[in-house]
Amino acid sequence: ALVDDPLLALPATPAGDAGAAAIAADAALRALGEEAAAAARAAILEDRWFKPQVVAEARYLYVPPYYNYDQYYLKVDTNTAAVGLSVVLPILSGGLDGARAAAARAREARLQEERRAREEEVLRAARSAAAKADLSLREVDLARKTEALARESLRIASALDREGRGEPDGLLRAELEVVEAREEASRAEAAAARARLSVLARRGDLASLAPLPPAR
Question: Is the dihedral of CA 30, 32, 38, 43 positive or negative?
């Protein structure tokens, strides 16, 4: 026997479109959107004709004195440093830049299509979960009403049994009906709790249910 109603331990699902909230909370959709935006920026950069390439290089060389280079050279610098900077302006790329831009645009289009397919999948699953949760609540309400009727029948059967006007097995049958109705209500409540958890998970609200780690 459950001490508390499992539905009371879960927050109620917020009002509004469950699909929109699920889309906003889906990490895969965010990743696909960011990747598509990066591909679009790459295509724009590849389409630019002015793309200077700056190459900087620094070198340092140390010559130990025990190599005795001064015996063979008039002047030897044991510490030598050099810094170089070059700027390249590509003019003719042989179509390489255009090919890279086309590849980036194709990648963006593919990612956008994947994102649309994922969005439809998330939307369909979220709305299906919300509909299942609503149906499960109606089943809980019906099961609880059935249990209330069974308990009322048990009360009447008990009163008739005390007065000696009841059927021989009337009280036992009424008690069994109460037990069966309570079990059915428990199953309906557990199913409703699972359905609500599914909706909360798709909306990204399960993190608020996780207990905070103990302070150290």
Answer: negative
Helices (H) and strands (E) in the chain, counts: 4, 2
Task: Look at residue 214 in the predicted model and tell me its pLDDT.
Answer: 53
52's tokens:
């200077």
Mean pLDDT by 10 residues, the chain (216 residues): 63 73 88 92 82 84 73 72 81 75 91 93 90 91 94 91 83 92 91 88 70 51
Q: Please report the pLDDT score of residue 88 as a whole number.
A: 76
DSSP single-letter state for residue 50: -
Distance from chain centroid for Cα 154 = 49
Task: State how far the Cα of 63 lies from the Cα of 76, in Å rounded to an integer.
Answer: 9
33's CB contacts (< 8 A; 6+ apart) are: 115
Q: Say if residue 15 is exposed, middle or buried (CB neighbours under 10 Å; 0-12, 13-18, 19+).
A: exposed
Tokens representing 25 are: 């909370």
Q: What pLDDT shows up at residue 210?
A: 54
Answer yes or no: pTM beyond 0.90.
no
Euclidean distance between the first and the last CA atom of the chain, given in angstroms as a whole number: 37
CB neighbour class for 14 (10 Å; exposed up to 12, middle 13-18, buried from 19): exposed
Among 86, 70, 90, 88, smallest CA distance to 78 is for 70
